[in-house]
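Researcher: We plan to redesign the surface later, but first we want a full-length starting point. Tokens attached.
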């Protein structure tokens, strides 16, 4: 999904952009989708519902302007969308997957997405994440499950700026933000308010 209008403590970001910006975009619907990627009817149903092809490659994502699908396991995905309210997104998927062996679960209330951008993003994430996020090892379109300090997370890179998104359980939201602030004291952290 493209970055939405962003401000940094009231200043437009088209000026000298901070080395690290982070924020929690509002209005996201998050659905957990389970099904058989080897079943053509399942894959076609998802694509008809979302207009995005289901990513079946390990640790990958697929997206359009409003929706991102994140691979989370051999038969497991997160669907993150700004196009539909959670109930409407679930209903749309169920309609196109009717009669198939699958599960569609609204998990919006249980997760938040942390979006980070800037030249110091990798350094900030490396403070608490053991993954190798160097550009030669982790690229746009890849995803991975890991930890950020003591919080279990899924993360993926959305842009070469670089921009990353981190899926965090809502119960760890405050903790993840506090650890991000602590880990970015040298580079500085600007809150990214996204409309």
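Model: Full-length starting sequence:
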């Amino acid at each position: 999904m493209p970055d939405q209008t962003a401000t940094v403590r009231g200043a437009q970001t088209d000026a000298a952009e901070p080395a690290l910006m982070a924020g929690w975009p509002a209005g996201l619907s998050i659905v957990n989708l389970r099904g058989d990627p080897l079943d053509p009817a399942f894959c076609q149903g998802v694509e008809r519902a979302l207009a995005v092809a289901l990513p079946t490659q390990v640790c990958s994502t697929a997206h359009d302007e409003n929706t991102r699908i994140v691979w989370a396991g051999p038969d497991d995905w997160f669907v993150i969308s700004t196009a539909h309210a959670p109930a409407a997104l679930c209903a749309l998927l169920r309609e196109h997957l009717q009669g198939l062996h699958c599960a569609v679960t609204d998990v919006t209330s249980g997760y938040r997405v942390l979006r980070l951008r800037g030249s110091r993003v990798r350094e900030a994430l490396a403070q608490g994440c053991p993954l190798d996020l160097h550009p030669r090892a982790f690229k746009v379109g890849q995803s991975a499950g890991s930890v950020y300090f003591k919080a279990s997370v899924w993360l993926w890179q959305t842009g070469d700026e670089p921009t990353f998104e981190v899926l965090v359980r809502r119960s760890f939201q405050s903790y993840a933000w506090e650890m991000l602030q602590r880990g970015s004291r040298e580079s500085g952290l600007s809150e990214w308010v996204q409309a």
